[in-house]
């Protein structure tokens, strides 16, 4: 195995003489601009990692002669424009990671011949060839019968032609598939209105019952595909462990995830048409969310409440350990059936949420254990009424509140508060005395807050100040030591 970070201390040409090399890693090697053409001499190479080599623009064609290569990872190579045309020669390739390659806009031809492929982190469904002709790569999926992980992008360009539909349906026959991600991309809502095939294509990607992880991004229909509704979710998603639904802007109902017996992690983000999470989310079962451990709602701009009918679901959320809300400005509170003191409940507040009287007088937030206040530019001091619903807060983080001058003394009365982090609050002048003296309390002040430098410290306490000036001093000290050596 060979792992390189700094090419200045090593000649890359020397690598081609290591004929028995099996693993070669250039991960995060920012100086790497190209691989040597002689890389084909490494005939025993099985794993090649080039993740986040941000200056790499092209792979040599000779790479396709590495017939024993099983894994190729170019994730995060932002300037990589294309893969070798003869990539299909790598018959033993099992893992191809091209995620986060922003400049890579098309798949190499004949990728369907890589029949041993198990993980394909990004698959561009439709692309334009060198002559500007639109090419649909969906039919290539039919022969990739060993896929366990598949992320399909550019689905907005897939038509509902019989050939494309039939090829998409082939995914049902793959019993090995465990991780499926479906992603559309829209530049404007007018293009969404013209795409009549959205739901048709989504229906065709109906997965087999062995699926463990499902992601759906930018699906723009009002209704979910049939295999995600009440009548289909149990038969097609019964063994699902994790699900991510991101930017389903028009979707008016959540899938009945509560009836999935093995579901552990749920993330729902950017579903702007959802106002209430109700019993439809729980599904038709007595014991809802029996395995759920973590659930996150983020950027739900119209979400107001989460209500569960207590009599209908007496056994609910028995294993739930973490609930997080991020950027839900209209959210009024939780049903007490859902949250209780044993659950780690995190909330992210911004200006619109924090400054509303509705939040200040709410008693439905007393279960919160972690609170983040981010980007409240008008905030000078925390509202007095906040203390009534922060009784169980253990961690408080305040970020980017430029006008925040002081932290209130009532924070000292929060008996469970053990960690306070302040980041980028340059106007802050005052912190309650308890936080400066108590040994068991963890206080971090990072970037800004220069007026706190002369704060009085108690015995055994360290105030962590990470600022540009202090960093410069540390660098100067290191340089002095290096010169002395």
From TrEMBL:
It comes from the Eukaryota. Residues 54-325 form the Disease resistance R13L4/SHOC-2-like LRR domain. Coiled coil: none annotated. It comes from Canna indica (Indian-shot). Signal peptide: none annotated. The lineage of its organism: Eukaryota, Viridiplantae, Streptophyta, Embryophyta, Tracheophyta. This is Disease resistance protein RGA3. Keywords: Repeat. Pfam families: LRR_14. The keyword Acetylation does not apply. Transmembrane segments: none annotated.
